[in-house]
Amino acid sequence: MNVRHHLFLFFFLYLCGFVIPLQAQTAKSNPFVVVLDAGHGGHDSGNRGNGYYEKHIALKVTKQIGKMLQKEGIKVIYTREDDRFIELNQRANIANKADADLFVSIHCDAFSNPKAYGAGTFVLGLHRNEDNFRIAQKENSVIFLEEDYETKYEGFDPNDPASVISLVLMQETYLDQSIIAASTIQKSFVRNLSRKDRTVKQAGFLVLRKTYMPSVLVELGFLTNAKEGAYLNSSKGQKEMSLALYRAIMNYKKTLASSLQKETVVNTPSNTDASKNEQQKAKTTDVIFRIQIAAGSKKIPLESFNFKGLSDLFRQKEGGLYRYFYGTARDFEAAKSLKETAKSKGYSSAFIVAFKDGKKVKLSSAILGN
Asked: What is the dihedral of CA 151, 202, 187, 263, to 10 degrees?
């Protein structure tokens, strides 16, 4: 087969949907979207350890990260770009409206012991110890500055550990990806800046409650520590922290792309004489297609309200993970329609999975009926 025939075959398969250039898709139709959330702002100064302003430091670091990411072709959206107050629910709404791939909320810590130091990363989860509850309590207390907060946050009380339980289920869908993102950020702090490793922790942060994507809250360090506070308030410290976070986000993006490529890549079929109808539909009735929408370490009830209104749900356990699927289709075209429905509900990383006799099979084999 000469070069012309190779090119013709490639474009034919591309138009039929069998050759999926993942990088081209990401760059053109689905840009990687990061929402950067500078904590506090306006009449909420954040903590004032040693006279510094958490809100100003968070904003400066956030904007530096954004500029570096934009140079890499990342679509960056800020919850605030100046010194203004943004309600916690609104920060999540901005991220959801943007259909973001990652939400990063940036803060500075404070503690009664001035010797406490180090950067930390958090994902939404139950308070595992008193320190985690203290940090979440400090950040969540911002709601007291909002009007009608009792109604907006459905009776949530930042001072009551029991209130945290209601926060966790919505983000459970994205917990594993959130932990990967948080771990990547924490490793970057340690590897690039030799910061104290405070490890990735789970805590009940309201700002992460209603985001429909992997979400992380970062505490850059303790303003109440004289040395660390001066570092975070300096141009040098802000530049170094921004660079470490930028590198971490880029590494997370690469990790995610690699994972998705393993799951979604469709091999070019060897039987090039198959008709388009045969290529688009499974030949056997025991092959079905489902849409994977999430994966997590905990078992979530298959109720529509837990999955943004989607029904026809299916759960399968693989190793230590539960994988969650939406819809059932007998042909590939119907499966693509289901995938678009899942994406419209906020599951931007949804992809098609084929099953035969209850077991996952290669997508290309299922489509060709091999």
From this structure: -80
Smallest CA-to-CA distance from 173 within 146, 204, 212, 127 is with 212
Q: Identify the CATH class of 25-259.
A: alpha beta
Sheet with 197-203, side-by-side order of all strands: 75-78, 33-38, 102-109, 215-222, 119-124, 197-203
3-20+270-368 shares its CATH topology with 25-259:
no
Model-level pTM? 0.59
H helices of the chain, in order, are 3-16, 22-28, 54-71, 88-97, 130-140, 149-152, 165-172, 175-193, 226-233, 235-264, 276-280, 332-344, 363-368
Which two structure tokens, joined as six digits, stand for 245?
């976070």
DSSP β-bridge partners for residue 104: 36, 216
∠ Cα 322 343 349 (to 5°): 50
User: Which position has the higher pLDDT, 21 or 90?
Assistant: 90
Q: Residue 116: CB partners within 8 Å, gap ≥ 6?
A: 109, 222, 224, 225
Domain borders along the chain are 3-20+270-368, 25-259
Rounded Cα distance, 318 and 20, in Å: 26
User: Count of CB atoms within 10 A of residue 1's CB?
Assistant: 8
CA dist., res. 146 & res. 132, Å (int): 23
The correct CATH number of 3-20+270-368 out of 3.20.20.60, 3.30.70.1070, 3.40.120.10, 3.40.50.1000 is 3.30.70.1070
Cβ-based burial of 99 (10 A; exposed 0-12, middle 13-18, buried ≥19): middle
The predicted-structure confidence for 325-348, as pLDDT tens digits, reads as follows 999 998 888 988 998 998 888 887
Cβ(204)–Cβ(140) under 8 Å? yes
Which residues on adjacent β-strands are paired with residue 106?
A: 38, 218
Res. 303 pLDDT band, cuts 50 70 90:
confident
- The closest alpha carbon to 210, from 97, 287, 367, belongs to 97
Strand partners, 78: 36
Neighbouring CB atoms inside 10 A of 270's CB total: 9
The span from the CA of 221 to the CA of 113, in Å, is: 13
